[in-house]
Amino acid sequence: HISVFAFSLENFNRTNEELNDLYEILKSKIHEFLINMYLQIYPIRRDFLKNSGIRIKVIGDLTFFGPSFQRTCENLCELTAENNRCNLNIAVCYTSQHELMKCAQRIINSPSNHSISVRDIELDLLENSIAPVDLLIRTSGETRLSDFLIWQSSHAYIQFSKSLWPEFGFYEFLSMILKFQINFQHVKELMNTRNNLISDS
To answer: Which pLDDT does position 41 carry in this prediction?
Structure first.
C-alpha cells in the first residue's frame, strides 16, 4: 500500500482563491489520470498501470466536492479494481478526526448492539479506508502529521524530510526505505503487539 495526502478538509479554512486553485489542480490531475491512462490517449501509460497491477482507491468524504467529482473518482477506482499487486490510496477531503467520527457513526448505527471495541474500529477502517501504516514520510520540513492516518500510523516508523513534496526524489526516498529496513524488526514487533491487542479486544 502507498498512500498520499492530496487534499485535507482543513484546506477549506483557506481563502476562496487558494481553495479554488487547489481544487482545480486536484481535479485536473484526477481527470488526467482517468483520461490519459485509460481512454487510450497514452496507451503506454495506461498499460504501465495495468501491467504493474496498481489499484487506485480514493479515501475521504467526497461529498464536499459534489457528484461530478465523486463520479470521476469512482470511475478511476472501478477501472483499476481488478489490479492486485499494489494499492495506491489517494486521500481527498480527508482528516483522521473526520474519518474516525464517520467510523464511530457507522458502528453505532450497525445492527450489532454492543460497545465499540478497538477491533470494531480496525475492521471498519480496513473496509472503508486503508490498512495500518508501516512507514510514514512527512515532507516540507514540518514535524507534525497534519491529522493524516493517525489511527493507522500508531505504530508506524515516521521520517521527516525538509524537501517540499514536488522536490522529494528517488534517492531521498530510497534512503528512507533503507532506514526503515534497518528498523523493520522493531516495527514488526510493535505491529504484532498491536494485532494481539486487537484480537483480544
So the answer is: 46
